[in-house]
Amino acid sequence: MIDASAYVRISEKLSSQDVILVAVSKTKPATDIQALYDLGQRDFGENYVQELVEKHKVLPSDIRWHFIGHLQRNKVRMIAPFVHLIHGVDSPRLLETINKEGERAGRRIDCLLQIHIASEETKFGWDASEILSFFRSPDALQSFPHLRIRGLMGMASFSNDLDRVREEFRGLHSLFQELGSGSFAGIDTFNVLSMGMSADHPIAIEEGSNMVRIGSLLFGAR
Ligand SMILES: *Cc1c(COP(=O)(O)O)cnc(C)c1O
């Protein structure tokens, strides 16, 4: 069951702030997605490849599907023809695979690089230093003609320490600005900063997020 009034309130607030809402529908039935679609929502986020493929088949074709989970290289082919944005790209090898599958699908696939900002060990992603050295190599960007690096994504610590959460988001925003004015200078498609979920998106937006991924506030607890 979706919370329609929460959706209306949240989506109006976010659009007044120029923040894109990705409705995270993992584990939720297609009927719930259709209900939000009928209220006007078009961006949906999924974490599991098989589930995304099934939902893509039965739901309206103008939905923009975001893949926000951990993507295994052997599954890229299944989503390459239609995925709108892949948020969790966490290695150069995955970039290579996406580039190859983009070529095979005859399109350029938009990606975000996932940066490790949380103190927990379990979260995937690049360290700031890794990403800076990756982009210092002069042909890092030219070597992927079938994808586009649109920006960065990160997940803060699961913590009640809101100062820490804010610090993590702030660090990601400054890395985003640093890359945007360095390696990506003049590339105006490097403009997406995906950070913030149900619990922490107000802080993320204060710290510069322009895309939030919200599940439980819209669809209820999982
Ligand atoms: C599940 C998930 C979300 C949404 O989480 P909520 O707390 O339900 O808003 C956002 N981002 C990622 C990467 C997720 O896996």
Characterize the main sheet. 8 strands, parallel
Helical content stands at 40-55%
Q: Say which molecules are bound, naming each kind only once.
A: pyridoxal-5'-phosphate
Structural class: alpha/beta
Beta-strand portion reads 15-25%
Number of strands: 8
Major β-sheet strand ordering = 7-6-5-4-3-2-1-8
The radius of gyration over CA amounts to: 17 Å
Uncertain spans: none
End-to-end Cα distance: 11 Å
Number of alpha- plus pi-helical segments: 9
Mean of residue pLDDT values? 94
- What's the helix-strand series? HEHEHEHEHEHEHEHEH
Envelope shape: globular
How would you portray this structure in words?
There is one protein chain. The protein is of the alpha/beta class and 222 residues long. The protein is built from nine helices and eight strands. An eight-stranded parallel sheet has the order 7-6-5-4-3-2-1-8. The longest helix has 20 residues, at 162-181. It starts with a helix and ends with a helix. The model has no long low-confidence stretch (mean pLDDT 94). It binds pyridoxal-5'-phosphate. Pyridoxal-5'-phosphate binds next to strand 8.
Features:
single chain, about 220 residues, alpha/beta, eight-stranded parallel sheet, about 40% helix, about 20% strand, globular, binds pyridoxal-5'-phosphate
Kindly summarize this structure in a few lines.
The chain is an alpha/beta fold and 222 residues long. 40% of the residues lie in helices and 18% in strands. The protein starts with a helix and ends with a helix.
